[in-house]
Amino acid sequence: MGLWTALAITRQSQGRTKVRLFEARQVGHAGAASADVTRVFRHLHGPDEQTIRWTLEAGRGWEYLGNAANQHLLHRTGVLFLRHRERPGDTPSLHAQPFTTTREWMEASVEALEALDIPYKRLDKKDLARAYPQFRSADIEEAVLDTRAGFLEAAESLKALLALCKQAGVECHEAERVKAVRSNNEGCAIEVDGGRGYTAQAVVITANGWTADLLPVPSNILTITEQPLVYLSPPSNFSPFAEGRLPVFISLNTDCYGFPIHQDVIKVADDRPLRTLTHPDQRQPASDKYVQSVLERVAGFVPDLKNTSVARTHVCFYDRSRDGQFILDAWDTDSRIVFGCGFSGRGFKFAPVVGERLGRFAVTGERPEDLAPFQLGRFEA
Ligand SMILES: Cc1cc2nc3c(=O)[nH]c(=O)nc-3n(C[C@H](O)[C@H](O)[C@H](O)COP(=O)(O)OP(=O)(O)OC[C@H]3O[C@@H](n4cnc5c(N)ncnc54)[C@H](O)[C@@H]3O)c2cc1C
Q: Which of 76, 188, 225, 358 has CB 3.0 to 4.6 Å from 150, enough for a Cys bridge?
């Protein structure tokens, strides 16, 4: 989010606005939420058409980055949404919120795609068996393929973005942690570890799970949850899991998802939170029992993954807002400190849009119109 914000400001001002980017460690360090092999890029997101418009805009941002870096960063493999039969007593699907059933969510999501002319395919059980025999479960009722969706190469994108920021003139301060930011109606004072200070006309804070170190966002509005990832070694017959054969998949009812083979692994995970934390530094390695339970749940509808071996695991975190929506706002009445957090496990794909909006907000002091729903004040009602 920080890199896209810095790039947006520099590009919008054609280099006339000086931008400093502070990163406590190294851009793309393993503890940050953006530092992973892949992230899902999808249009199908529920009934909100604005979210789809943002995905389209973000897609253009990622394509621009890919072209600038001469790299294939956005893989439009498709994202397949699986809907299973609902049974009384099932744990409500997180993906389907705020609906109570995945059927209602799917119908509303598809309607939104149609309203904006986004291509998709609806597959009944027979179509699914023919097109994607990797998914075998008696309880899958239907699937929808978001055809122009797919995945982003996350870590590679960060490297490309950092290079582009530097090339555009952003002054990058890695291994320089911001300790405090203060504002008055004339500007901001930034204090970094070691006692050094900087001044700026405005500051944008995108510190994800570390936001509360700098801004006292109440913990009942912004929580941190542990989100383990499991990387599997592909089975000996790996071709059904290769990119081009397997799309990204999201099982709405189990909240488990996975990716085709990328960088020699099949990544799977459960979107449901493992533990709630107060700080990202409290993360613990996932237990074998947890990892096995994820594997079993995924193998429940992708049986050929049953006997795969676990190559590695990693525990990431979500910065979950209370309502699952982003928080993109100004902290002070003069809009000198602008901040973004609460990405709730789905922010990566939108980073080009978030960066553009937060950057414009900070430079002009005017809230971009489409940020109105994302104010912190909504939680006071
Ligand atoms: C397991 C998992 C799966 C996900 N899947 C998806 C997905 O499929 N699709 C999707 O769109 N999104 C997904 N997300 C969400 C997405 O990855 C995040 O919303 C996004 O990467 C957050 O980006 P960020 O820049 O806000 O945070 P980060 O990448 O965490 O970056 C924040 C940076 O701020 C630095 N920092 C913190 N405090 C300070 C300070 N005081 N001074 C200086 N620097 C500081 C940190 O070191 C860190 O590098 C997923 C997240 C996880 C954990």
A: 76
pLDDT of 225-273, one tens digit each? 999 999 999 998 889 999 999 999 999 999 999 999 999 999 999 999 9
Q: Is the pLDDT of residue 37 over 90?
A: yes
Rg (CA), the chain: 21
- Residue 267 is encoded by which pair of tokens? 């990544």
Nearest CA among 53, 158, 69 for reference residue 113: 53
Residues 1 and 351: their CA atoms lie apart, in Å, by: 5
> Whole-model pTM?
0.97
pLDDT in tens, 142-162: 999 999 999 999 999 999 999
Cβ of residue 3 lying under 6 Å from some atom of ligand 1: no
H or E element at residue 98: none
Distance from residue 187's CA to the centre of ligand 1 (Å)? 27
Which residue type, as a one-letter code, is found at position 98? P
User: Is the CB of residue 344 below 6 angstroms from any atom belonging to ligand 1?
Assistant: no
Predicted local distance difference test score (pLDDT) of residue 380:
87
Task: Return the best residue to mutate from 23, 283, 374 for the ligand 1 pocket (most ligand atoms within 8 A of CB).
Answer: 23
Q: How far is CA 197 from the centre of its chain?
A: 32
Spatial distance between the Cα atoms of 196 and 266, rounded to a whole number of angstroms: 44
Atom of ligand 1 nearest to the CA of 178: 42
| 166 alpha carbon – ligand 1 mean position (Å) | 20
Alpha helices in the chain (DSSP H): 2-12, 49-69, 102-115, 125-131, 154-168, 211-214, 288-299, 351-364
Give the pLDDT confidence score for residue 213 in this predicted structure: 96
Taking the C-alpha atoms of residue 250 and residue 82, their distance in angstroms, rounded to an integer, is 6
Tell me the C-alpha distance between 215 and 119, whole Å.
Answer: 41
